[in-house]
Amino acid sequence: MRPDPRTAIATVCLSGTLDDKLAAAAEAGFDGVELFENDLVASRRSPSEIRRRCADLGLTVDLYQPFRDFEAVPPDVLAANLHRAERKFDVMADLGADTVLVCSSVSPDAIDDDDLAAEQLNLLAARAAERGLRIAYEALAWGRYVDGYEHAWRIVRRAAHPALGVCLDSFHILSKGDDPRAIRTIPGDKIFFLQLADAPTLPMDVLQWSRHHRLFPGQGDFDLTTFTRDVLGTGYSGPLSLEVFNDVFRQSDPHRTAVDAMRSLVWLKDSLGLLDVPAAPVPSGYAFAELVGESDLAALGFTRTGVHRSKPVELWTQGEARVLVNSAGEPGAVGALGISVPDPAAAASRAKALLAPPLARTPGPGEALLTAIAAPDGTQLLLCANDDWLTDFVPDAEPAAGAGITGIDHVALTQPFDNFDEATLFYRAVLGLTPGATTEFAAPFGLVRGRGVSGTGIRLTLDCALVRRGGWAPAVREPQHIAFSCTDAIATASALRRSGAHLVDIPGNYYDDLAARTALPAGRLDALREHSVLYDRDDHGEYLHFYTELAGARVFFEVVQRIGGYRGFGVGNAPVRMAAHHEARRRGR
Fold first, then answer.
1. Which helix (DSSP H) or strand (DSSP E) does residue 574 occupy?
2. What is the model's pTM?
3. Residues 6 or more apart from 414 whose CB is under 8 A from it?
4. Distances (CA, A) of 322 to 375, 403, 406
């Protein structure tokens, strides 16, 4: 196993003053920081005081950045740039930083001349070397003439100075679709620094993409495992450092963001085989879902089959679906999820390594000891190896025939906007779930972003409202729902309506549009319309689903039928469902 690389984070990743950022980075366990010049300029501490503060916190200043628009310029501009560089070298000496990041120029003064760029970078490196410093040259994806890492390396190689190397930034390389395999041709001792950032796939200007939408590893779509493996394969021995420009992170609690950032590097190291932590569990399904507050599960065909020995909790069952109803706590919420895993102790050990330590729980005498961890939104995840937890309930009835519900298909949890990407990484890193594509749709009250995370046995959807302003908004705070599976959505919808379940009525316009855009037989369309069953399909199969009205403040239920290998969640129908829910609430239902 390779030595465990050091970790660093750029201060630009975090919110607050420089003192706030340094404290958060140290508390999260980072070894060092990249000091962003703006943070230094705005700080009341002198560079030498910052150096001492970092030392007190156990941090090193691994990089000072950025130094812009230096190379391939006319003589008068070069003279000014060298004067500027000497002053920055003074600052670095006081900071105790030995490496400065020099970005490829975007200046209109720059000349398209690699020989001149190499000559001037050699001169800068010579001056840095006199003071025991190094120059890490980075190709910006939007550089005026140098916008690729291979081009930057050619210039560095041509400059041929031992104090000049390259800085590799995953965003600048992967956002342009450049092939990272050529990184292996660069000697490791000439890679002076590595900056890591993930990102969603967005068809937009690369500068705006970089400045506003970078993410921590594991939160986006880039293959950072392969990228980092290519860099480490050169013999690079510097830190794995995060440089993430993100509008949300830069206004969020820096301590929470720093923990999220560290979790991303732990996940990345684990994916590279650099850590000795238990493998991600393979969940086999939901042992149960827990609702807080009253819920009319009987109308959905569930039977109360047990009562907890010491807590105000009831067990309701239908098929393989088990729902616990807890009358204590905040009503109208999904309070906990039971996740069936082969080895709860190993899963808990992994969670702890991924900075999600187990929650303190005190079972009653003779009750099952379940390990619980908290998801970013506060939902408790209880790790279950088998059905031993059922012995905590005193049986009081045998399950009835039910209405056709067979199990729990997925659970949908609305995330606070600031925690959406954090939640994606949490479920990926801790439970080994695979994130799907991020989707955005226009809901009746604004844009909603969603993303599914799935494994062999469980599925979750994570949603958040992108913008929420003023009082004109639905009176449902962070809605959640449990989706039950069935084998015949039409028959189950019919049975539930006969039993008095309050199902959402879908407008006829939806079915007129469905008829226009699909080739479904008329009889099938009529059945969907009659029972307010929604329809979707993908390349793998079909999806039939319908919804109940809200059961309490923010929880409702969905019943789904997957036909073939359908992989999605019917996201395209979400605006129709949301409008129907709003109409039902306005009618006082």
1. helix 574-586
2. 0.94
3. 377, 462, 463, 464, 465, 478, 479, 480
4. 21, 14, 10
Angle, vertex CA 86, rays to CA 163 and CA 111, nearest 5 = 75
Please write the tens of the pLDDT for every residue from 17-57.
Answer: 999 999 999 999 999 999 999 999 999 999 999 999 999 99
Torsion sign, CA atoms 544, 548, 549, 551: negative
Between 18-28 and 254-271, two packed helices, what is the crossing angle to 10 degrees?
Answer: 40
Dihedral in degrees, nearest 10, Cα atoms 178, 180, 184, 188 = 100
CB neighbourhood size of 215 (10 A): 24
- Output the CA–CA distances (angstroms, integers) from residue 162 to 9, 85, 105, 195, 305, in the order listed: 26, 18, 21, 21, 74
What does the alpha-carbon distance between residue 550 and residue 332 come to, in Å, rounded to a whole number?
9
Helix, strand and coil percent figures for the chain, each rounded to 5: 35, 25, 40
Residue 192 in contact with residue 136, Cβ under 8 Å?
Answer: yes
CB 185 within 8 A of CB 236: no
Q: How far apart are CA 527 and CA 490, in angstroms?
A: 7
Q: What Rg value do the Cα atoms of the chain yield, rounded?
A: 28
DSSP class of residue 2? P
3-state secondary structure of 44: coil
Q: What is the pLDDT of residues 182-208, one digit of tens each?
A: 999 999 999 999 999 999 999 999 999
Which tokens is 200 given?
């969603």
d(CA 545, CA 570): 8
Weakly modelled stretches of the chain, pLDDT under 70: 1-2, 466-477, 552-553, 588-589
Considering only CA atoms, which of 411, 326, 413, 329 is closest in space to residue 377?
413
Task: Tell me how far CA of residue 554 lies from CA of 210, 282, 582, in angstroms.
Answer: 36, 30, 12
Helices (H), 355-507: 420-431, 489-498
Torsion sign, CA atoms 279, 284, 286, 287: negative
Of 449, 454, 373, 345, whose CA–CA distance to 409 is shortest?
454
Distance between CA atoms of residues 512 and 509, nearest Å: 5
- CA dist 124 and 155 (Å) reads 13
> In 3D, which of 229, 198, 219 has the Cα closest to residue 428?
219
- Amino acid sitting at position 120: Q
**Bridge-based pairing state of the strands 434-443 and 321-326:** unpaired
Neighbours of 472 (CB within 10 A): 7
